[in-house]
């Protein structure tokens, strides 16, 4: 292993980190820790999930990389034993609670502070790679979002506009977001068609949305 992976390997040997994960895994079923056949060792799952996160891999690629590398087999404590499949890895990953992940981050920060790697006071992230709960920005969805924002602004400004002008067409305050959303869904549906008729209908829908 290179120097970086050796250091990470040393950090992941921390008993408290493994205990946190083992505690979550034992709650999957009432008697998970006492009965049933032998499962994949907690340390193996922990290290494979850590490797997936470190290298930004999919579950499939994580398993493939570990399978093909003696170094990664050693890092994950797999050695020459069979690897867990993708479904098993996903199932165990979903078992980890948000609270446990917070405790793990706190423990890692504590270890890094003790080793003088960081002071643990600030965190720096790159906004281009931080996951966020937002839909894919297609043309029609952005137009639909625009309608939503304009409708909200007009609704907030309605009282001020009517107070200063009596000749305003009340139709401009109508909430058109539902209509825009319906047209947007129609465009999504028409995007799957490849014939000329579908393309023409999609263009007409865009014109109507705009």
TrEMBL record:
Q: Which domain of life is it from?
A: Bacteria
The record ties this protein, via Pfam families, to: DUF772
User: What sequence ranges are listed for the domain Transposase InsH N-terminal?
Assistant: 15-93
- Which InterPro entries does the annotation name? Transposase_InsH_N
PANTHER family noted in UniProt: BLL1974 PROTEIN (PTHR33803:SF3), IS1478 TRANSPOSASE (PTHR33803)
By what name is this protein known? Answer: Transposase
């Amino acid at each position: 292993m290179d120097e970086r992976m050796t250091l990470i390997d040393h950090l992941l040997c921390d008993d408290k980190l493994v205990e946190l994960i083992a505690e979550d895994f034992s709650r999957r079923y009432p008697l998970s820790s006492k009965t049933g056949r032998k499962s994949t060792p907690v340390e193996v799952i922990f290290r494979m999930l850590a490797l997936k996160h470190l290298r930004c891999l999919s579950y499939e690629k994580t398993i493939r990389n570990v399978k093909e590398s003696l170094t990664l087999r050693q890092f994950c404590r797999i050695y020459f034993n069979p690897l867990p499949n993708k479904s098993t890895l996903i199932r165990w990953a979903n078992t980890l609670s948000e609270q446990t992940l917070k405790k793990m981050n706190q423990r890692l920060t504590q270890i890094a502070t003790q080793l003088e790697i960081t002071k643990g006071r600030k965190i720096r992230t790159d906004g281009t790679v931080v996951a966020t709960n937002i839909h894919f920005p297609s043309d029609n969805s952005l137009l639909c979002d625009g309608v939503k924002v304009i409708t909200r602004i007009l609704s907030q400004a309605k009282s001020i506009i009517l107070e200063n002008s009596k000749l305003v067409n009340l139709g401009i305050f109508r909430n058109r977001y539902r209509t825009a959303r319906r047209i947007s869904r129609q465009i999504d549906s028409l995007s799957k068609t490849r014939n000329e008729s579908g393309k023409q209908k999609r263009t007409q829908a865009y014109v109507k949305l705009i």
